[in-house]
Amino acid sequence: MTAGAFTYEALPMRVVFGPGRLADLHAEVSELGLHRLLVLTTPNQRALADRVAGLLGDRAAGVFAGARMHVPAEVAAAGQSHAREVDADGCVAIGGGSTIGLGKAIALETGLPVVAVPTTYSGSEMTPVWGITEAGRKRTGRDPAVLPRSVLYDPDLTTSLPAVLSGTSGINALAHAVESLYAPDTSPVIGLFAEEGIRCLAAALPAITADPSDRDARSEALRGAWLCGACLGATTMSLHHKLCHVLGGTFDLPHAPTHAVVLPHVAAFNLPAAPAAHAALSRALETAHPARALADLATAVGAPRSLAELGLREADLPEVIEQVLAQPYANPRTPAHDDLDALLTAAHSGVPVRG
Known about the structure:
InterPro entries: ADH_Fe/GldA, ADH_Fe_C, Alcohol_dehydrogenase_Fe, MAR
Domain Alcohol dehydrogenase iron-type/glycerol dehydrogenase GldA: 12-155
Number of helices: 13
Distance between the termini: 30 Å
Organism: Amycolatopsis bartoniae
Low-confidence stretches: none
Strand content: 5-15%
Shape: globular
GO molecular function: alcohol dehydrogenase (NAD+) activity; maleylacetate reductase activity; metal ion binding
Helix content: 40-55%
Protein name: Maleylacetate reductase
Mean pLDDT: 94
């Protein structure tokens, strides 16, 4: 492909954004022609799901509050079965990446459309990427059938998210944009989304840490998560996401904190081989040392600084390396075994990032 050439395909999705927009949910599903919606959530957010079912009124087919992190195959099967039992013609997934991931797993099997209502900053609602964990392995793929038909962003729904979870969730979203900057299928449009999304989150997350009730910061963070999620939906993910999928799928590490720990180390490894991405990330973060700035941001929002803090044993690192080396993916640099060992050892022990 000649220099400057690119391909960009816009994803067919409707976005509704603004404080108080949850009240528009009934009108939104009516616009989509849906009549029997199964509300999905986690056990901890059952009360919110019941509220959503109330807003849907006679269009609510029930609540399934069994979503779990990394979408275990048995949970996906239970959700699919429940959707059939209540004769649902769609799902409303209200919550973070776990719930939206369950909605995608149901859509993958049944074809039911999903309306996503995010309550965190993960950004996965903007993508056709699905993931299901079975027997200690996380399978992922891309399928337009799992892309939510509509996403309703209401910043008011994020105000109860604790500051530290807001921070790690936001860095999870930010990771999508970072990897999109050096993806082989990036484009000028994605570059604009990525820079603005990173800029929004880098400003908003410390403000939320200082004052979790700051509604302007909450709104800015959610806008950043939307833009960063759009990057993930339109480009190929690389080494960072491969590592996080193995760490989550095989070792059940918490998804967002794992992203917060790993991202600065992967950025330090990749950016020297991706000068355009380095320049874009430097502009967004207003620094000549973007990998170090990512680590500083994680520290500022109170994120864990090592994989050891998340429960990974040093003895587990060879298994992570083996799985990553066995999986094909595009990356600015092709890491050898020793590269992955050095990167993971530093991330495991929390060695400061210098890049």
